[in-house]
Prior knowledge:
Elements: E1 7-12, H1 14-17, H2 27-41, E2 46-51, H3 59-64, H4 69-93, E3 98-102, E4 111-112, H5 115-123, E5 127-131, H6 141-151, E6 156-161, E7 166-167, E8 179-180, E9 182-184, H7 185-190, H8 198-206, E10 211-215, H9 221-226, E11 233-236
Amino acid sequence: xxxxYKRVLLKLSGEALGGESGSGICPEVIQDIAMQIRDVRNLGxxxxxxxxxxxxxxxxxxxxxxxxxATGDYMGMLATVINALAxxxxxxxxxxxxxxxxxxxxxxxxxxxIRRRAVRHLEKGRVVIFGGGTGNPYFSTDTAAxxxxxxxxxEVILKATKVDGIYDSDPKNNPAARKYRQLSYSxxxxxRLKVMDATAFSLCQDNRMPIIVFDLFTRDNIRNVLxxxxxxxxxxxxxxxxxxxx
Length: 246
């Protein structure tokens, strides 16, 4: 099977790990994700993962409830490490060699983030999971994904969500919402599409890092995207306005 991408970053939201409720950790969901990752890893893909923590704690929501913003963000970063360990456990049960690296030092449970070591793990066939966000408050895990993708030389960011792409409005609330097949970075920023924050989009734009937003919960979608199937929405370095709709 011919692969379109060899080295990729998979961005998982914390809410995705919570299943239908979006909270806590759903064993069935993580098991399904682990099997999809195993399948693409067996194709020879070099894969890194950045995972959010919104299923456990979200810093911004904590600050809205009275927790100091920086403290809340650090709490959210710790939540991402919990999720990273859960994914690691499932992957290793699928016999996928895995390493967790954290931007916040916690040497008893994972490695510190070291770019050259992460690249070496990839070259040895291991999946690397990045937890702890960027290690700094006020930055989202989307920004962490954009940063890490560029640092390790990924060819694309796969943004796995609960919907099948980017729409001009929330398809859950608007049945007439139209799906974009492709967008430029500037359009994604100017339209304030909330699939990723502006900082992450800008970082990808500056480094011409394409982003594919797709539905995680359709079986084999990760593999299909990597093999070049036109699934979801592509955000890339294009100058023209693309029409919405399929």
